Model the fold of this input.
Amino acid sequence: MKIQFNAIPMKLDAAAGEEKLPTITGLAVPWFPESAVVSSGEKVAFAKGSFDVNQKPAKLIEGHDLAQLVGTVPEIIELDEGLGFLAQFARTSRSMDAIELIRAGAYDAVSVGADVIESYFDKDTQTTVVTKSLLLELSLVAIPAFAAATIDTLAASAPEEDDETPTPSTTQQEETPEVETPSTPEVEAATVPTVIHAQAKRAVRLPSPGEYIAAMKRGGSEFAQLNANIQAATGDVVLSDAAGLLPTSVVAPVFSDINPLRPIVTALGTRAMPQAGSSFLRPYVKVHSAVGQQSTELTALSTANFEVDDISISKKTFGGKLLLSEQVIDWSSPSMLDAAIQDMTGQYALATEKETVDRLVAAMSAGNAITTDLTDGEEIIADLYLAASEIAEVGNYLPNALLVAPKTWAKLGAAVDGQGRPLFPLAGPVNSAGALPQGTSGWNGNILGLTLIVSNQITDQAYGTQDADDFLWVLNTRAIETYEQQKGFLELRDPANLGVSISLRGYFAAAVLDADMVRACGPAIA
Done:
């Protein structure tokens, strides 16, 4: 596996005015735990001792391109903070160009190309840590992967003659210059960055228009490097710099935590409200006629009084009012007016549902109650059949619905038989007493053939000494009727205050025609 690092800029200390080919020293890579992200996206770090300092000299190149050789790396040394290096330039025109780029500050860092021999994966840092490798090449780069991988010194391979050196004698004896012996690279201590950045700001001398055109004409790596330098020198623009240009969006629609359902009214259906009067009469048979077998020919037939009475049903008005400023209507998005209308419509539905439950509970007597332990599955089944039989004994109608509050619905779902099996399972076997096919995700269900209706408006309405939400309400839906005339919205504008008043209203009535068609199974009442 060959690892090639991309780059981050750091400081360069270059000696100016050198005539002969220089050497450079610095830090090639810092030791683990400092890591960098390679081109594959993997985090990689080098452990101390992972390089053979006695290996064959690696190549000194530009930008990880072996076609751009500029010298060799004759010496690498293991330092406390990382791998130090000394690189020697060759006497080529490309090397001269590279040296000038170092002096100009374009090249101020290095990046390694290494052949990994042994490594392990550190789970704590999610990093591949190289423990044995071969340094193949050292690249001059503008932006290193490791922040500490910098060129720290630029030194001459031979010192210049002092300007004040006496003029050579007439014998023109040539002095042999002293050659500096390469010493241990002077490497500044590297600070391990908390975050490895892909780019960082640095001061780079921007080219003049003429220099840019000349570099563009020459093309190749020189022009590419020039563009990289310009990009590195360009200032970053982040969100905090553009606060005045960033809008704050509002996502529609307006969220509501209430589901405006009225399942009981929906199951019963609503009838048209009579137009005239504040109340109306609903006739019913109070005393039935008699029909019997004639005892003998020409004898009197059975006879009995047949009476029709009526139930007076009062109309009730349900509504709400809200005052909005003209500004909030015009400027809000999503529309405050639309949100208010939807909310008031939902509240109207809940209020009329509660009215239906109130009328049902108020019409019930203690004689319609069956004491039931809702934690006993066998008793639930027995008492539901008892309720059905009592309803049928009066008018020969069987129940077709079971009304419950959410907390009582939960008790039905938790009920088990004598063997600990769910009484009303999610997927009912052929011998089940019913099913709750949607489980906890829906109200639909079948309880011994009864349509399950769950309403959160069955709450604390008083039924004897208990609350309505403690019972199973078994009934035939013929027992209750609802009437409704929805009037819609009214809008009134106040020009003096620039206000808009909206009102929602409707007429609604609910009546229990026959309480004997209803039974309540639950705790004992007084």
User: Anything to note?
Assistant: The chain has two domains: 2-158+183-200, 263-268+316-522. Residues 285 and 308 are 4 Å apart (CA to CA). DSSP finds eight helices and 25 strands in the chain.
